[in-house]
Amino acid sequence: SADMAHGVHPNFMDKHEEHHRPELHKGLVIKHNANQRYATSGTTAFLFKEVGKIHSLPTQDFVVRNDMGCGSTIGPILASGIGIRTVDCGIPQLSMHSVREICGKEDIDIAYNHFKAFYQTFSSVDRKLNVD
């Protein structure tokens, strides 16, 4: 499920968990939420990161602070309705839902290359994975 992700704003760094502050130009963000607002699981995050590692593409993780609200994506709905493993990811951006949303131009290339690599490499990575 590809969407956008909340990048850390320098004026509001305290709105993010200390070790989960997605930065522009640092790669695709894998979004996690314990309340299933995102569809990412441990297995799907691993698969997505592994594809990135094989192709030298950076990834970042985003976990919403426990005391902050969280939006959602269509990922959980699609995953439950279709029954396929799903990862929620996106390009980090500033000012989501504002008149002027901002993202890093390098992140667009990273996203394109990561999605292309995913379709080329997923099957071979998935065959090696054993999930109990």
TrEMBL record:
Coiled coil: none annotated. GO terms for biological process: proteolysis. One of its GO terms (molecular function) is zinc ion binding. It catalyses: Release of an N-terminal aspartate or glutamate from a peptide, with a preference for aspartate. It comes from Ambrosia artemisiifolia. PANTHER family: ASPARTYL AMINOPEPTIDASE. It is an enzyme of class 3 (hydrolase). This is aspartyl aminopeptidase. InterPro entries: Peptidase_M18 (IPR001948).
